[in-house]
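Lab notebook, entry 279. We have the chain sequence and a SMILES string for pantothenoic acid, and the next step in the workflow is to get a structural model of the bound complex before anyone spends time on docking refinements. Request logged below.

Task: model protein plus pantothenoic acid, output structure tokens.
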Amino acid sequence: MILDLDIGNTLSKWRLKDADSSEIRSRGAVWTREEWRPGADIPDLDVVEAVRISSVARAAVLEETVALLRRQVRQVYVARSTPEALGVVNGYEEPGRLGVDRWMGALAGYQLAGGCCAVDCGSAITIDFVLPGGVHLGGFIVPGLRLMKESLKLGTRNVAIDPESESDALLEPGRRTVDAVNHGIYMAAVSAINRIYSEVCDQQGVALPVMLTGGDARVVSRGVQVPHAVWPDMVYGGLEASFPLTFAERAGKMSGAPRVPEPVSLEKIRAGLAFSMLL
Ligand SMILES: Nc1ncnc2c1ncn2[C@@H]1O[C@H](COP(=O)(O)OP(=O)(O)OP(=O)(O)O)[C@@H](O)[C@H]1O
Ligand SMILES: CC(C)(CO)[C@@H](O)C(=O)NCCC(=O)O
Ligand SMILES: [K+]
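Result returned:
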């Protein structure tokens, strides 16, 4: 079995992948601040022959996790943001400072669709761009839905946006605090994504395929106007591409990769931008 780990600021996600059949056998998540110790919610390391890790938590969390895993697992691979990988050139002035989850997402997106706009809706919402030739432009970082809500301190943090709610309903002015906050932060997030996507495509003269990942991807998806795919395993896809271990991975296959819809034409994107400027 291969254990893939995505250590975020809030949640540490894991999945167990069968190295022979490429099937995902199980998955789960634990709070990052509780740190990563084999126990109730964590898979049995006896069956694990390799671990791949993407971590944006404090360095100490990663060190402890790696030390613990090395005692029981022979192969431990830790992803790093590098100046170049898999045909993508990192756009950061200091490439090592790009969050490795963003780098994994950009690599996965590029491997799947060529140039892309990779959006990760977690503690933060990150929006990264890779051009068809593999140039990563950099990206945008916005507070995530939960962070925005918490920062308001209006006692609404525990009432989540219903993932089933229609984005039209979220457009209505709230008539209670919880609705005003939920509708407000939702609009802040999706308006930012829609606008940023259009601006960058306009600047670069290319319509890019869009993919979304992260804990809030499903709800954010409802407000993203352009064609896009939701890819819960996008960060894991970057791990598979960076450290291919199975036959399928060596052939470039990332498990759970979605079909990515064709982007709308650049003309349409530009018309949409021009229209919003007139208002
Ligand atoms: N069971 C859950 N526990 C916590 N957050 C959840 C859960 N389900 C959905 N969410 C939402 O997912 C978001 C966290 O997503 P994700 O797991 O991608 O974040 P993360 O691990 O903190 O990511 P990051 O890498 O940005 O730190 C929160 O903002 C929250 O609104
Ligand atoms: C932005 C987050 C928190 C998103 O998980 C992570 O990618 C990170 O800590 N990045 C480092 C800063 C940067 O990417 O510029
Ligand atoms: K994340």
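Notes for the group: The longest strand covers residues 24-31. Worth checking against the assay data. The chain has a mean pLDDT of 93.
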